[in-house]
Here is the input.
Amino acid sequence: MSQLKGKNIDYFCLRYDEPYLHIPDELLETWIATLVNRNVCRLHIDVISDMPMCLFTCKTIVDLTLNESCCPVLFAGSVCLPVLKKLRMYYVVMSDESFKHLIAGCPMLEEFIIWRSFSYFLSGRFLSPPSLTRLELRTETIESVMETVLTVKLDTPAVRYHDLTDIRSENFSAVVLDSLIEADISISMFDPDDSIDSHSMIGFLRKLHKVECLTLSAPLMEEVPDSAFHAMAIKFPNLTKLKLFTDFRFISFFLENAENLEIIQINLSDCGHGCWIEPRNVPACLLSHLRTVSIHGFECLERDFNMVRYILKNAKVLRRVDIYTQSYCNLEKRHEALQRISLFERQSAACQLAFQ
Here is the structure.
């Protein structure tokens, strides 16, 4: 570190190969202070130690990554990272109050990645600065904290790209996500016997109504009856690209409510045991926009055939349908399925069918 004296530092990575090796606080503070004095711009710290306060008042740092570190107690006005644009925090120990002050001290933050796990988690309230445009939030867990109910509440009005992966939280909500154009939402339960709060899930979906690209992976909502499911009044006028790994009923739901949908990927292996329910009227997207359909996990069930039959019969501008069968479907079963689907009526003469 002494060799860096007098030189500005663009990038520095501090990592210990020995797992769980603790660096003495005095030594780490000396190193970080030297980096701050040398106007470090990009810093990656991968050590299990307490971070010194001087790190959080660096005037030059633009890109900061912290992995399995511990943050000091932060208070109002104690954080000043005026040019920080990218912040990544992986399993960092920090209180809710300190987290709030950290974000308040990053007025230029554009990209934020946070992974929370074990007993090191925040309550789930994420209030972002106006500059933030990309957010990735991942929540994991272990059995030792299974009794704790986690929540996710987003207050991120300027975020345009959002990646949410969660295997523990039961309640989801958002204040406003009107700037969001791309979202990758993956929600599952650590304990198969747990269930997501369907009301909060539906409310969260309402906040995604302006997205253009959406990937949705979520638990089945078996407690919601079909009548209530299809009564949800949520329109997605900007949605053009969709990937689904969730309740079978979401297929017809999005067809009905995303009038400009062009591309859809359906993963039937994650759709549960529901039945295909035809939309009440032919969806607008089938009449004018839907061009590509990709179906994965095709099980050769009657509901699968009914869905494909309906799409082929009504999609006027459809160009291609790709169907990938489950691995346990033998060649004979696949051949029979292909022969059957090949005889289905096609509204679009230009549609090509590929059966894998």
